[in-house]
Amino acid sequence: QGNMAFAGKYEFEGDENYDDFVNKIGLPSDKIEMGRNCKIVTEVVQNGNDFTWTQHFPGGRTTTNTFTIGKEADMETMGGKKFKATVKMEDGKIVAAFPNYHHTAEICGGKLVEVSSQISRLVYEKKKKKKP
């Protein structure tokens, strides 16, 4: 199990496909505007497999998630929705399933890189055999 050092303070640098993603996950428009190109500062405190992950938003709002790798924890989305998740470490990346998206975080070249991707859901109906 990889265990990269995540501890540090990271300032927002840029995003890709922000509008498309936040619209797909149903973030309210006021939260979308608040998050667009805002200088979020993410502060990570790591003690072995124990993490405190805090995002400081302009205007003084913060979101803090405290979790231990491999154990279920109470979490909160950037939109304020509370949920339970078991955060994992996979190939040096922190991985968590949020209510309607998959989130990974890793350290690349000294930078914190977070990737959120929407979870799609496919449903198939069993075909009934045709009677002769």
If you had to describe this structure to a student in words, what would you say it looks like?
GO terms for molecular function: lipid binding. Keywords: Cytoplasm, Lipid-binding, Transport. Belongs to the calycin superfamily. Fatty-acid binding protein (FABP) family. This is Gastrotropin. With 132 residues, the chain is mainly beta. Helix content is 11%, strand content 45%. The strands form three sheets. Strands 1-2-3-4 form a four-stranded antiparallel β-sheet, with no helix packed on it. The longest helix has 7 residues, at 18-24. The mean pLDDT is 82.
Main sheet: strands, sense, barrel? 4 strands, antiparallel
What is the percent of helical residues? 10-25%
| Rg, Cα atoms, Å | 18 Å
Counted by DSSP, the helix tally is 2
Task: Give helix and strand order, one letter per element, not per position.
Answer: EHHEEEEEEEEE
Labels describing this entry:
ILBP, mainly beta, Gastrotropin, 132 residues, lipid binding, lipid-binding, 4-stranded antiparallel beta sheet, 2 helices
Question: What is this structure, in a nutshell?
Answer:
11% of the residues lie in helices and 45% in strands. The protein is mainly beta.
